[in-house]
Design a protein that fits this description.
alpha/beta; TIM Barrel; 13 helices; globular
Length: 325
């Protein structure tokens, strides 16, 4: 289970002027077609990928600034050819490392290789069955064209093996109109993530306009979904359930795009630094946009939690089959 920070440690980190965590959207491309995606990164896809060495520079600058945890995200981060090298380097620099992925390209061999370097494995699972995933678009493009998805089967195999070898496991669920009445309690009980995050589907101007409208849910609908699952999982003390509505998500994430620009999302828009970390360093780039980030709101949404490796309790092994990427 995830240990709760003691009062002294929580206050120390809360009052620190350092930025505790960043999300690096290191890969613009994705092999899924999720309709509600708030980070399609279309403009970034038109630009050249940064080099492996440039990624090292970004990581060093983040570490020098005093960031404690980095979350590798996308697009789909596993599509980036340098993901392994960047995770390893981040760990060497003393950062707590995390990834959020759809699970494609993750094999048992990869999970074993990265186990010494990657602390937290995050999987995005939105429903208890792949029929709903297909409607949402959470599946490979070829699958979605045929109204199919094999997303859940793959993620279950990954989660079983990852837990078996000692990863901290996170589960991310976006609550939208397609899954608002779905019951994920049995699935979550089976997966036994250390941390389950429930997000209210988020509209971002200029990113998912025209696609997300039919998938929006009300605050009341979202809260009912959260309450229903909290009640059903009351006895699952090892699972930390965290919910974030739109207000809690806006202005509480520090992000970096695939080319090294720093950005925030305070008012439902992305606000980017004028120059990249590669040009001016993380400290200067962050200074351009940090008015769009609220430390207080970050703390209120539970942004500070005990993500240190030693806080992970390894569950009893669950034997699973081979993972197919």
């Amino acid at each position: 289970m995830i240990q709760i920070l003691d009062i002294e440690e929580k206050e120390k980190r809360k009052n620190s002027s350092r930025l505790p965590a960043v999300n690096w959207h290191l890969e613009a491309y994705c092999n899924y077609g999720c309709k509600f995606c708030y980070a399609p990164l279309r403009e970034q896809r038109e630009k050249e990928r940064i080099s492996k060495d440039e990624g090292f520079i970004i990581l060093q600058s983040i570490a020098d600034y005093g960031v404690e945890k980095i979350n590798f995200v996308g697009g789909e981060p596993m599509l980036n050819p340098y993901i392994d090298d960047w995770i390893m380097t981040a760990k060497e620099l003393g950062l707590v490392t995390s990834i959020v992925s759809n699970g494609t390209k993750m094999t048992e061999e990869w999970l074993l290789k990265m186990a010494p370097h990657l602390d937290w494995l995050g999987l995005s699972i939105d429903a208890s069955n792949d029929k709903i995933h297909a409607r949402i678009g959470r599946g490979r493009f070829g699958e979605i064209r045929d109204n199919k998805s094999s997303h859940l089967k793959r993620c279950l195999e990954i989660s079983r093996f990852a837990k078996k070898i000692g990863y901290g496991l996170k589960l991310n669920t976006v609550v939208c109109s397609e899954n608002i009445f779905d019951d994920m309690s049995e699935l979550v009980s089976e997966i036994q993530p250390n941390r389950w995050k429930l997000f209210k589907v988020l509209p971002i101007s200029g990113q998912n306009d025209g696609q997300v409208d039919s998938m929006l849910v009300t605050d009341i609908q979202f809260q009912k979904y959260v309450n229903r699952h909290r009640k059903k999982l009351t006895n699952q003390k090892s699972i930390q359930i965290v919910s974030e509505d739109n207000d809690e998500m806006l202005g509480t994430y520090a992000m970096i795009d695939p080319q090294g620009l720093v950005y925030t999302n305070l008012n439902g828009n992305y606000f980017f630094s004028k120059k990249s970390i590669l040009e001016v360093g993380f400290s200067n780039a962050w200074r351009e946009v940090n008015a769009g980030f609220s430390n207080d709101k970050f703390n209120e949404r539970g942004g500070l939690w005990n993500w240190k490796k030693e806080s992970i309790t390894i569950n009893l092994p669950i034997i699973g089959g081979d993972i197919s990427g």
